[in-house]
């Protein structure tokens, strides 16, 4: 694999057996997911909004490095699922049952500080949401709230380079971020997430508000980030899932509108030879 | 080497500091909020406490007097009724008319823009300046004297911008589909506004009107500026009569040195506050009913 | 249709009327008293036999009391607004907002009464050992309480107009509620919040009854909050209460002061509106 030219402290803390192993080759079937080399393990997860069950009994392991796509018809709870992984679901008044293990520890355990957890998991939203501040301050935000002092320039340049935005903005770092185009704003939001050195990046339909050219740029970016990061991307666009992901999880929903996981496996396998009839129907466009 | 567990890991100094500042901030916010709520309570309590002793039927039905214990608010109460009646008569039709024009008929041109920003500015003009306008224009130039009609016209101009803004908001909340449906059935623009849009918007327009009138009832300065009397020993019988209103009567009692008058002032305020609170309750209730009925 | 148009036109007529009347009455005043002396004079004694018309004492008292009132209302109002908009659970918000609206609906003459029967004798006098009931600080405190709901409601509006996806973005980066409020929401709503402060200031400058009742009514070029003072509005009230005949210089002087009052509130309001327009441009 390509090793980043820049020193990556986080790499040194990774379990040795997962370092340098390309995610493409460590795909595990859902039923044999008990290994500890997974970044995330979702176990019997139910997500609720008030009385409404939005997700039912989700079991999903996410291994180190690479991209996992979450696909499914609209309203099946894809976004809710990723929001459960950094405890943003509860910000909107939602409730969760079951366990989500992040690096082997249950993030819903009573002693876990959700704020601290979120600073280790990056998130990119549907609509680009840069703060109405300068480009520099946007990327610096996560560092500042975590109490980093001194010169932040190195980290900011590195983050913007990784987000493939540096060349476009290096001369106007003090300009307001809202002046950027939609695609640039979304890459800025990715840079903002990268700056805090997250161990996992969640992307909730990151291209749904962008034009095709900007979408292409983001997809290329996701591919290049996949070599260093674990990424989970929600998308309603199956071609996009096929283009960017190594693994795919397919969700659909019951008649009571509760989402559940149908199938999870290598993207190639899901798209060419799905083991479940419902997946096949969805992928071939017979449903959804 | 395994990953760093985040549970059980000792919170860093920074994180502890963050937690402390966050907690301190919430405490400050709650204190500030409590201060406002406490101030309302204290103010209402202190007025009630001072005035309750003289607040009775006699107080409502007596004229002012040189003896504090015998003084009453009758003439001021009647004056307020007279003035508010005429203020409503002048301000409400004109205010709603202007709102309909601006919201339904006016084009998006420079003139409309000027009127709009002008209304915003008028809403910020101090009420005592309206009093000067009333004094020079209605009292002297139009030769109305310090009469009910001059006072009402002054207050009408004062609350006109408030009514226009509130009525426009009400009209704007009516979905365009209602207008289009009426027009599609062959109604003229005017018919669509008169028979479809206005009835739908009415509750929220009315809410704004009530709140504007409540503001007018409490106004003191503009009416003193036009020369309204402080103590009136008769009940006005025509719009050209001299008058006083409750807040002016209250003010004149406040300025008297005899301690008994402070109680009269407080009792007058109780009357004023009861009227105002019932008006704003009606407004809130209306808004509530409107919010429920709105189905789109 | 024409009638409706005339209704809308009336607002322009009102403005023109205000300006014309203030000018026509103030011009003869300035024929007798030079504008320079008016603006720079340090003594205001229009009702004495040897008159002097230096507006500075009125102007400074107005600015001083309005400034002190804002010092009370702005921090408390802003903190309340942040708490209500970013922290408070639904039921708390649903109770506090209407309660503060009650505060906003109370006539100013009641605040004046509150200042001289409670704030001054119960709080200020024992605390600072002052002699007179009538002083600038009591009036300013009452005025500050009066302004709180205005600051709360306007800055709450501004903060709620900040799109919630900015809050989400900050939370996802590991910011706690305090950091989201202070580093994202407040800066994003800043022009709206400053506009709220300016509108409250304009209101304070134009406020009449509280200062007439509680501030003492003595023209006084002083910055001691425990002194009695007279603001521009309180002076207009003083003249209006005594039957000053039309055509005298005293009568004209209230229009000169009124003109000054009108211009100062207009300038503050225009500034606030410019800021609000800028704020809306970003988020609408």
Order of helices and strands of chain B: HHHHHHHHHHH
**Average of the residue pLDDT scores of chain B:** 87
Residue share in helix of chain A: 25-40%
Task: Classify the fold: give the CATH topology of the largest domain in chain B.
Answer: MetI-like fold
Structural class of chain B: mainly alpha
Structural write-up:
The complex is a heterotrimer of chains A (288), B (296) and C (284). Chain A is an alpha/beta fold and 288 residues long. Chain A has a single domain (2-283), classed as Rossmann fold (3-Layer(aba) Sandwich). Chain A has 11 helices and 10 strands. In chain A, the strands form 2 sheets. Chain A has a 6-stranded mixed sheet, with helices on both faces. A 4-stranded antiparallel sheet of chain A has the order 2-1-4-5, with helices on one face. The termini of chain A are far apart. Chain B has 296 residues and is mainly alpha-helical. Chain B folds into 2 domains: 1-51; 57-292, MetI-like fold, CATH 1.10.3720.10. In chain C, a hairpin with a 6-residue loop joins strand 1 (44-45) and strand 2 (52-53). In chain C, helix 3 packs across helix 6, helix 4 packs across helix 6 and helix 11 (232-241) packs across helix 12 (249-283). In chain C, 56% of the residues are buried. The chains are: A alpha/beta (288), B mainly alpha (296), C mainly alpha (284). The interface between B and C is large, with 87 and 86 residues.
């Amino acid at each position: 694999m390509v090793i980043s030219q820049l020193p990556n402290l986080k790499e040194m803390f990774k379990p040795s057996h997962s370092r340098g192993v390309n995610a493409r080759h460590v795909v595990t079937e859902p039923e044999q997911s008990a290994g500890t080399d997974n970044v995330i393990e979702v176990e019997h997860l139910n997500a609720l909004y008030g009385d409404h069950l939005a997700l039912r009994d989700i079991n999903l392991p996410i291994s180190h490095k690479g991209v996992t796509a979450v696909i499914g018809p609209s309203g099946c709870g894809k976004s809710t699922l990723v929001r459960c992984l950094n405890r943003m679901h509860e910000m909107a008044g939602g409730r969760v049952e079951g366990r989500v293990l992040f690096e082997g520890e249950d993030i819903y355990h009573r002693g876990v500080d959700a704020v601290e957890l979120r600073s280790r998991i990056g998130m990119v939203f549907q609509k680009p949401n840069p703060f109405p501040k300068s480009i520099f301050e946007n990327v610096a935000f996560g560092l500042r709230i975590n109490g980093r002092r001194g010169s932040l320039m190195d980290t900011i340049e590195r983050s913007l380079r990784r987000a493939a935005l540096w060349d476009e903005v290096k001369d106007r770092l003090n300009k307001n971020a809202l002046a950027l185009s939609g695609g640039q704003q979304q890459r800025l939001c990715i840079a903002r997430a990268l700056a805090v050195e997250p161990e996992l990046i969640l992307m909730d339909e990151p291209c749904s508000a962008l034009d095709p050219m900007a979408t292409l740029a983001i997809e290329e970016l996701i591919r290049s980030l996949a070599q260093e990061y674990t990424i989970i991307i929600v998308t309603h666009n199956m071609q996009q899932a096929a283009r960017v992901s190594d693994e795919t999880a397919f969700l659909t929903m019951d008649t009571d509108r509760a989402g559940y996981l149908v199938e999870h496996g290598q993207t190639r396998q899901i798209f060419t030879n799905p083991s479940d009839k419902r997946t096949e129907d969805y992928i071939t466009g017979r449903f959804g | 080497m395994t990953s760093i567990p985040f549970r059980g890991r000792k919170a860093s100094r920074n994180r502890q500091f963050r937690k402390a500042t966050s907690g301190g901030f919430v405490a400050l916010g709650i204190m500030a909020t409590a201060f406002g709520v406490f101030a309302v309570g204290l103010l209402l309590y202190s007025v009630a406490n001072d005035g309750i002793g003289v607040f009775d039927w006699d107080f409502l039905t007596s004229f002012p007097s040189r003896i504090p214990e015998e003084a009453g608010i009758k003439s001021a109460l009647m004056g307020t009724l007279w003035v508010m009646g005429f203020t409503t008569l002048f301000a409400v039709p004109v205010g709603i008319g202007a709102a309909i024009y601006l919201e339904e008929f006016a084009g998006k041109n420079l003139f409309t823009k000027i009127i709009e920003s002008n209304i915003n500015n008028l809403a910020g003009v101090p009420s005592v300046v309206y009093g000067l306008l009333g004094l020079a224009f209605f009292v002297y130039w139009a030769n109305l004297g310090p009469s009910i009609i001059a006072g009402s016209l002054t207050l009408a101009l004062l609350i006109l911008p408030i009514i226009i803004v509130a009525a426009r908001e009400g009209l704007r909340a009516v979905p365009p589909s209602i207008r289009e449906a009426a027009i599609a059935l062959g109604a003229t623009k005017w018919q669509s506004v008169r028979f479809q849009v206005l009835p739908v918007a009415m509750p929220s327009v009315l809410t704004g009107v009530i709140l504007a009138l409540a503001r007018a009832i409490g106004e003191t300065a503009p009416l003193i500026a036009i020369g309204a009397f402080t103590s009136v020993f008769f009940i006005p019988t025509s719009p050209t009569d001299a008058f006083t209103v409750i807040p002016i009567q209250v003010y004149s009692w406040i300025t008297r040195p005899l301690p008994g008058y402070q109680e009269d002032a407080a009792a007058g305020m109780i009357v004023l506050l009861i009227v105002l609170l019932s008006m704003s309750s009606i407004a809130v209730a209306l808004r509530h009913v409107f919010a429920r009925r709105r189905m789109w | 249709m024409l009638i409706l148009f005339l209704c809308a036109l009336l607002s322009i007529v009102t403005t023109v009327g205000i300006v014309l009347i203030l000018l026509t009455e103030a011009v003869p005043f300035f024929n007798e008293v030079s504008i320079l002396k008016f603006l720079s004079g340090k003594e205001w004694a229009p009702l004495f036999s040897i008159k002097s018309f230096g507006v500075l004492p009125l102007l400074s008292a107005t600015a001083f009391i309005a400034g002190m009132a804002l010092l009370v209302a702005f921090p408390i109002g802003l903190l309340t607004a942040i708490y209500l908009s970013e922290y408070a659970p639904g039921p708390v918000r649903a109770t506090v907002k209407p309660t503060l609206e009650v505060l906003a609906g109370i006539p100013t003459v009641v605040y004046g009464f509150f200042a001289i029967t409670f704030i001054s004798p119960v709080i200020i006098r024992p605390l600072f050992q002052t002699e007179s009931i009538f002083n600038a600080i009591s009036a300013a405190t009452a005025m500050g309480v009066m302004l709180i709901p205005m600051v709360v409601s306007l800055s709450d509006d501004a903060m709620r107009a900040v799109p919630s996806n900015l809050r989400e973005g900050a939370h996802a980066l590991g910011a706690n509620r305090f950091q989201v409020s202070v580093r994202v929401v407040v800066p994003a709503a800043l022009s709206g919040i400053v506009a709220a402060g300016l509108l409250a200031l304009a209101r304070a400058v134009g406020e009449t009854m509280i200062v007439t009742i509680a501030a003492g009514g003595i023209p006084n070029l002083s910055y001691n909050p425990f002194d009695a003072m007279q603001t521009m509005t309180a002076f207009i009230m003083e003249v209006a209460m005594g039957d000053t005949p039309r055509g005298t210089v005293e009568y004209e002087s209230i229009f000169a002061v009124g003109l000054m009052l009108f211009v100062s509130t207009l300038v503050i309001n225009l500034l606030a509106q410019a800021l609000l327009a800028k704020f809306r441009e970003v988020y609408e």
